Amino acid sequence: MITKLLPAYDPTLFQGAIPYYVDYRPRYPEAVYRLIQESFHLDGRGRLLDLGCGIGLVALTLEAQFEEVIGIDPDPEMLRVAIQESERQNAQKITWKQGLAEEITGDLGSFRLVTIGRAFHWMDKPTVLQRSYERLDSSHLTDSSKSGIAIIQTEKDIWSNDSEWAQNVLTVIKKWLGERRRVGNTTVPLLYQSDLEILESSPYKQIEKHTIDFQKQWTVNTFIGYLYSTAYCRRDYISDIPAFEADIRAALLASEPSGVFVEDIPITVYLGFKA
């Protein structure tokens, strides 16, 4: 069951993209979770709050490290997938709630750790950092244990990848969808502060930035599936699917005739601690 924190939400951002999201989005490597576990000395105690939980990747992976897990996301379709997967894995310690990270309140209780996986860019960052900090409680932890936040970002994608094949694909996307990156019914705004700067201006202390190298191997078909999982290249944006896919295939194969591509996707993990 999904518990609603908000009366309504416009779910158009990933409308129609969820099946592609499940099948084609890269998963985080084990090194990401190991970093979080070791940095906060996770030992099965306390509660986890996973904001922008999506289909539940982070919450499900870290469930064993906590007594209870709360996953919150505004998209009901994402949450339905998360529920199905938690039932499949018999993950009984997770509660899923529909709502916005900006709207969390004291009714949720206190937590040992807050996580945000590949969703921070959709949020009102200062508000989420302030509200999440208020939900942390480290008073019951030992000196070796820590309370705080872990934010996982994959900051490099087709729009910032300078490899030949990626630039060829981006040319096709711009041809079909325009020069500005789409986000639902609008485009991505220009940003003037980095995530690190925003974190350093938040209540969190001892801010750390870690980079984990990660590579993803794609075929032509899996990369097209990945594109349809994104908010900037949803399938319903395309006026002529066969023609678009033909353009993508031609662009990819012009760079790599084998049809197999390796993408470097460095993962940035920001850690912040509660004093």
UniProtKB/TrEMBL annotation:
Methyltransferase domain mapped to chain residues: 49-133
GO biological process assignments: methylation
Gene3D superfamilies, per database record: Vaccinia Virus protein VP39 (3.40.50.150)
Pfam families: Methyltransf_25 (PF13649)
Keywords: Methyltransferase, Transferase
SUPFAM superfamilies for the chain: S-adenosyl-L-methionine-dependent methyltransferases (SSF53335)
GO molecular function: methyltransferase activity
Keyword Chaperone carried by entry: no
Protein name: Methyltransferase domain-containing protein
Organism the protein comes from: Synechococcus elongatus PCC 11802
